[in-house]
Amino acid sequence: MDELRRRGDEDARLVWGRWDAACEAKVHRFGRVVFPDCEDASELKALTEAALAAVSANLKLTTFANASRRMR
Predict the structure, then answer these.
(1) Residue 5 belongs to a domain
(2) For the segment 14-40, what is each residue's pLDDT rounded down to a tens digit?
(3) Residue 4 falls within a domain, yes or no?
(4) From the centroid of its chain, how far is CA 5?
(5) CA–CA separation, 25 vs 65, rounded Å?
(6) C-beta separation of 7 from 45 below 8 A
(7) Which domain holds residue 30?
(8) What whole-number distance in Å separates Cα of residue 31 and Cα of residue 66?
(9) Does the predicted TM-score (pTM) go above 0.70?
């Protein structure tokens, strides 16, 4: 692949980003998703956003479960 395209979600960064002391801010966590058979830009955007939503939902569940365990 000659060109690597990245998609970032600023709302996700603020909620799920990791703290970077050097930047004194939350920074993106990086993941990778590949759709080798997708050639349409709008379809690729939709697939990528769906993948981000799925990962974010899983993070929310994990965070909630961990918080629940600490409260016991």
Answers:
(1) no
(2) 877 888 999 899 988 777 788 999 999
(3) no
(4) 15
(5) 26
(6) yes
(7) 10-71
(8) 22
(9) no
Number of residues assigned to the chain: 72
38's tokens: 């997708």
Q: Which amino acid is at 54?
A: A
Q: Which residue has the tokens 């395209």?
A: 5
How many separate domains does the chain show? 1
State the average pLDDT for the chain: 76
| Structure tokens given for 17 | 């980003």
Q: Look at residue 67 and tell me if it is in a domain.
A: yes
- Where in 2-57 does DSSP place strands (E)? 18-20, 25-27
**What are the structure tokens assigned to 54, written together?**
């799925």
Task: Grade residue 6 by pLDDT with cuts at 50, 70 and 90.
Answer: low
Quick one: pLDDT at residue 37?
Answer: 94
